[in-house]
Amino acid sequence: MNNDEYNFCLKQIELMIKRSKTKIIFPIITYGLIKEYSATGNTIFNDIEIKNIYEKSVNYFKTYLGHDFHIGGKYYDAYPSRNLPKYSVLTTIENKVYRLRKEYINNSEILINTLPILINNYIKEKLGEIPQFHDPEYRLEKSRDKTAFINLLNQQIIINANNFEIFLFAILKIHLEKFSCKIYRDTRASAHDKGVDLSTNFGVIYQIKKLKLISEKIARNVYNEIKINFSDDRIRDGNIVLIIDDISKDVKSFLINMKIQTISKPDLLELSKLLDLEDRMKVLDVVYKEFKREYKSVI
Questions:
Q1: In sequence order, what are the residues at sequence separation of 6 or more whose Cβ sits closer than 8 angstroms to the Cβ of residue 224?
Q2: Are 35 and 112 in contact (CB under 8 A)?
Q3: Confidence (pLDDT) at 159
Q4: What residue spans of the chain are helical by DSSP H?
Q5: What is the C-alpha to C-alpha distance for residues 264 and 208, in angstroms, rounded to an integer?
Q6: Residue 40 class from Cβ within 10 Å (0-12 exposed, 13-18 middle, 19+ buried)?
Q7: Burial class of 48 by CB neighbour count within 10 A (0 to 12, 13 to 18, 19+)
Q8: In the chain, helix, strand, coil percent, each to 5?
Q9: DSSP state, 276?
Q10: pLDDT by residue (tens digit) across 77-86?
Q11: Pairing state of beta strands 90-94 and 97-100?
């Protein structure tokens, strides 16, 4: 092991992981290439071999992680030709033929052990307990005690914007079902900067934004954005509802005057206290299915 080379590799790997969105791809390809070198001594790979190595590595990580969330994105031949050279993993020898760089070769033994830990830690940080919600027994365990369930919601919602959007959607969805009302997520959580639109079967559009509306200036900017995205008739009829992190009383009144209703995170958490055991389990089931739509492996 060479400390300088190892630290160089580690820096590149951490950068790849940090830049991952709904799928971790380049670190898993890197792991597969290092593992292949360790097993065979091969340092030169063509595009087809890299694709096969990647798919084999994805299957390994499914077992290692115990789930297939945040891994298993579609493979493209641009990955070894453009992305992995950018992160100093491969160098191009000729068209669609690549060599693993010496830094990874010289530190392969420790990197084989380090990479799975880094990937696992990152996914746990982003997804928390969500992959375990597939198990009805686990959902029951987490839902049986109402106070523990509310604490779980609070812990998960603050992890990141995706969690904020999906958990609040799930609470609202289960609540509205009591009144035979249906609500649907129209956009994916990775587009959270512009909000996630929720359509319904009763004419109202909900939009989730992880914002604290504490000043009229911020509220006016949000209102101007709504005016761009929705018709005057829909706004005038009061059919736009904002779901946000928190809101001051003055700003809430300002938006009501503009025909915009708001629901805050504390409002929905209070609403969740009224859910019975079955509905609490349903909330976690909705959360799991929405994250599955976002993060499940396609391999």
A1: none
A2: yes
A3: 87
A4: 3-18, 26-40, 47-65, 78, 84-86, 102-106, 108-127, 136-143, 146-157, 161-177, 216-229, 232-236, 249-257, 265-272, 277-295
A5: 10
A6: exposed
A7: exposed
A8: 65, 15, 20
A9: -
A10: 999 999 999 9
A11: antiparallel
For residues 71 and 57, give the distance between their C-alpha atoms in angstroms, rounded to a whole number: 10
- Are 3-127 and 138-295 the same fold in CATH? no
Q: pTM of this prediction?
A: 0.86
Q: What is the pLDDT of residues 34-53, one digit of tens each?
A: 999 999 999 999 999 999 99
DSSP SS3 for 42: coil
CA distance 110 to 122: 19
Q: Where are the domains of the chain?
A: 3-127, 138-295
The confidence band for 128, taking pLDDT boundaries of 50, 70 and 90, is confident
Identify the residue whose tokens are 């290439």.
33
189 pLDDT tier (thresholds 50, 70, 90): very low
3-127 maps to CATH 1.10.10.10: yes
- d(CA 8, CA 228) in angstroms, rounded, equals 47
Q: How far apart are CA 290 and CA 282, in angstroms?
A: 12
**Structural contact between residues 275 and 174, judged by C-beta atoms closer than 8 angstroms:** yes
258-294 tens-digit pLDDT: 999 999 999 999 999 999 999 999 999 999 999 999 8
Q: How is domain 138-295 classified at the CATH fold level?
A: Trna Endonuclease; Chain: A, domain 1 (3.40.1350)
What strands lie across the sheet with 205-213, from one edge to the other? 183-185, 196-200, 205-213, 240-247, 260-264
